[in-house]
Design a protein that fits this description.
By secondary structure, this protein is of the alpha+beta class. The chain contains 7 helices and 4 strands. The chain binds inosine-5'-diphosphate and magnesium ion (MG). Inosine-5'-diphosphate binds next to loops.
Length: 137
């Protein structure tokens, strides 16, 4: 089933020069296609919507500050089961718990700075794609 998902390479990934490495892992999955890719400085308003489910949690404010600390790379990826697939490539939220071979498992240490965001369901993908790429058809 072909799907579309939103991926954000977080400021740590951009700062550490890991954009090519991470995009390469996504590109190498057979038949997945990148249909948008942009370096972007986010603002508080978009992050408040993007992370609406986490507003009020103790990690929310430091998370927003981190996401504002430098540019992100926003991508739209299309392909077979890409929503579940990019989540699997990323690994679980905590990079120490994430298996080596996954993006978070290979490059991350702390939970907040875990390199990548990927939509977690078809509903999230639809909402997040509208938020980040409203003009994309
Ligand atoms: P996900 O990115 O794996 O979907 P979520 O639970 O949706 O994880 O959390 C969103 C982001 O918030 C995480 O990717 C991580 O950057 C940050 N985060 C989540 N839980 C914690 C925490 O307990 N401490 C610090 N940061 C957290
Ligand atoms: Mg999430």
């Amino acid at each position: 089933m072909s799907q579309r998902t939103l991926v954000l390479l977080k400021p740590d990934a951009v700062r550490r020069g890991l954009v090519g490495e991470i995009v390469g892992r996504i590109e190498r999955k057979a038949d997945w296609r990148i249909s948008a890719l942009e370096l972007r400085h986010l603002d508080r308003a978009i992050l408040e919507q993007h992370y609406a489910e986490h507003v009020g949690r103790p990690f929310y404010e430091p998370l927003v500050e981190f996401m504002l600390s430098g540019p992100v790379v926003a991508l739209v990826v299309d392909g077979e089961r890409v929503i579940e697939g990019v989540r699997r490539l990323a690994g679980p939220t905590d990079p120490i718990a994430a298996a080596p071979g996954s993006i978070r498992g290979d490059f991350g240490v702390i939970v907040r700075e875990n390199l990548i965001h990927a939509s977690d369901s078809a509903e999230s993908a639809e909402r997040e794609l509208k938020l980040f790429f409203p003009g994309l058809v």
